């Protein structure tokens, strides 16, 4: 059924693409965005955007046509436009929900700012207020302005103005379309939470009234803008005309289809679709690089002192775009804009919007040895798939975008840069997965990873669990069951859920299909049920093998076998008990090493609470190690994975500590 | 007062060796708590031992660092305390080395150390004064550099950062210059049995009179020392203790100890140069 529906939508998309293109060519570039006529509304609601292959056109349920003027002196945006929304649920809609995210920064009564602690994802408080003033919101088909009758979207928190409910005088039937003509002005804050201004730099994000997503059963996915949460919306087409100072260099979601000078101003028109958000930047000092990677026009905007960073970021995008398209399905758009904000506006960095990502880092980052630029660039690029194309609910299941992205980023970093994927320098290599593990370990029982963003006690917890623990859990699955299998599973998930809004079951289903039930169960335990695992080696024993001695009553009579000399004999026996604490069952290897250095491996399927290894060898047993290759990165404590009869002296540590102390004393106490 | 020329460290190998040995013993004392801390994490329970800490990727190193995170501040504080105490105690062998380099006459080690101990109080007092001056300069430098960076806020971040770094580098040069003056003062204490204040003035006078000679006398062994440390790092990297083989550890230890020993010679060359500068330029003009 689902496949048939998709096919029907795809065919409709092809027809409408041709129609929309013909209309656009005939009309020429409008000076003001043209709102679709009421009769054309259903067509506009599903009109395909530029660049996406027609065979995979999803339904456009919320499309926006906006014309915005940026005043760089007051940091205000005045805008008019049209929202075309289609009720894709099975039930009539008696109300609309609108997100006014910028109101999170309006005053300290908002959910975002009311805490005295810096709780936002960026850890920064607003230094200047930001808000949206809606002037009108006329429902064309209903012939009424909905704005005056608005009520708080979350009734028990009327002080927060980010979630607004708009009662409708007449229900919108399933499949029907509503056209909203709106006018609004937005005041940007100083950069906070990846939106706002710093001097003449502007990152204009979450700036327009955005209609919430209506689920199939008629439930609105509406929410207040929580400091730890991100966003969720329907796909649609965006046709946005920007009026900016002529000297501003602009980067935006989608493809630039028109640009012209108007006195001291410049008008740029962007079209994008199918996407679920639209963000843009404007700064006169941007430097620019362009590259054609496959079928994608990549544009990199960076500050004047960021040449070296730009090299690295463009390299990462070039590598990643091809690699991720192969793993997770083709990048469906014809443009990608990468923005490196100036250092003073660093809080604008590290964010994803459809076809536009922001990276960031001080100008000296390339010389620090850490792969921070590669990491943030690949991470945000990966969000084009796990947020942009697979449009999960970021507030309800943040691990589906941030966690899966973190795994894919760590995996890519390790594949590209090997053991030095996080840091390479001073003779040391640190792998990104090793660092992620440190943040994620021992936290399995804190909060379920698959919790809504608002249920985490703070952003640090969310970061450790949603980002690092999901990444570590998936990395564990990759190491235990095979990376190529997990990549196939994620590829299957990303392709099957392309332009859809899946929940966790789709991810677990794909893992189950490609890696089997045990892997899927382990992943589900780790992410949904606060599962944990800790392998512990205990009871390492070894002794010389002996012939039974004593008094034996045989048929032939009683015989006495004297005890052998304990210092003589042939073989040795060993016994090791490995315990699995926690509920995640994963297969592991157990390695035993005798005093002669001979290694023997045993396999344990991970079932049960413990596993006893009986060993026989030519020399006494010296060491036992469970999971010697560190495949189970989820293991709470790696240091109890080994046991020995005689501990090894820490000679290397002594040598290095002694030398560093000598150097230190020589320098500071000559 | 003795007016004899100082002697090359090459002619005082025993003195330099004792200086190295005292530093090595102090370093061993400082390093043992760290070794105990790391051993306590259980890394010795694995057949690879602490080789795991050096393996590429750093899975176990990150684990150990994570486990020790809460213990590190206290450990560093105790190391700093012990290091400060040892630094004061190390002034004895340092002064003994200066004494042995200050005269061409061959005297017994007992006599040398006896003379050195007599000079230690003035040396400690002088070192304290110099340290205070260095701390003040450092504080002023960081403050001024911060103001400079703020004042350059209108330019690009790189310009402001580079200006900040340049100011800090300038301050660091002043701190180093004060260190040179301190060393010249110590030479004056040993050579002319001066009290700390007079010796500091003699050091200042010598530095002011012959800045280039003083700087060259310090810079040449200092640069040689940097080159030696870099060479040691290259060799240690090539030997790669993360790979199996105890011989790698012993060889790296040998390389590092040779570097440390050579650094003591570098230090001794500067001490000889400081004694000579003070001999020639340390007295007030007639």
Structural class of chain A: alpha+beta
Put simply, the count of helices of chain B is 9
- Strand arrangement, largest sheet of chain A? 5-4-8-2-1-14-17-16
Distance between the termini of chain A: 81 Å
The low-confidence parts of chain A are: 1-51
* Main beta sheet of chain B: none
Strand element count of chain B: 0
Poorly predicted runs of chain B are none
Oligomer: heterodimer
CATH class of the largest domain in chain A: Mainly Beta
What would you report as the Rg of chain A, rounded to the nearest angstrom? 30 Å
Q: How are helices and strands ordered from N to C of chain B? A: HHHHHHHHH
Sheet/helix structural class of chain B: mainly alpha
CATH architecture of the largest domain in chain A: Sandwich
Write the layout of secondary structure elements.
The complex is a heterodimer of chains A (670) and B (286).
Chain A: H1 2-27, H2 41-45, E1 62-71, E2 76-86, E3 93-99, E4 131-139, E5 144-145, E6 151-152, E7 163-172, E8 177-187, E9 196-198, E10 201-204, E11 210-211, E12 213-214, E13 220-221, E14 236-245, E15 249-252, E16 255-262, E17 265-275, E18 280-283, E19 287-293, E20 296-302, H3 307-328, E21 335-339, E22 351-353, E23 356-358, H4 372-382, H5 384-389, H6 398-417, E24 423-425, E25 428-430, H7 432-440, H8 459-481, H9 483-496, H10 504-515, H11 517-528, E26 533-544, E27 550-554, E28 557-561, E29 572-582, E30 588-594, E31 599-604, E32 610-617, E33 621-626, E34 642-644, H12 651-668
Parallel strand pairs in A: 1-14, 20-21, 21-23
Antiparallel strand pairs in A: 1-2, 2-8, 3-7, 3-11, 4-5, 4-8, 6-7, 9-10, 10-18, 12-13, 14-17, 15-18, 16-17, 19-20, 22-23, 24-25, 26-29, 27-28, 29-32, 30-31, 30-33, 33-34
Helix pairs in contact in A: 3-4, 4-6, 6-8, 7-8, 8-9, 8-11, 9-10, 10-11
Chain B: H1 13-39, H2 59-68, H3 72-89, H4 91-102, H5 109-151, H6 157-192, H7 196-209, H8 211-239, H9 246-281
Helix pairs in contact in B: 1-3, 1-4, 1-9, 4-5, 4-6, 4-9, 5-6, 5-7, 6-7, 6-9, 7-8, 7-9, 8-9
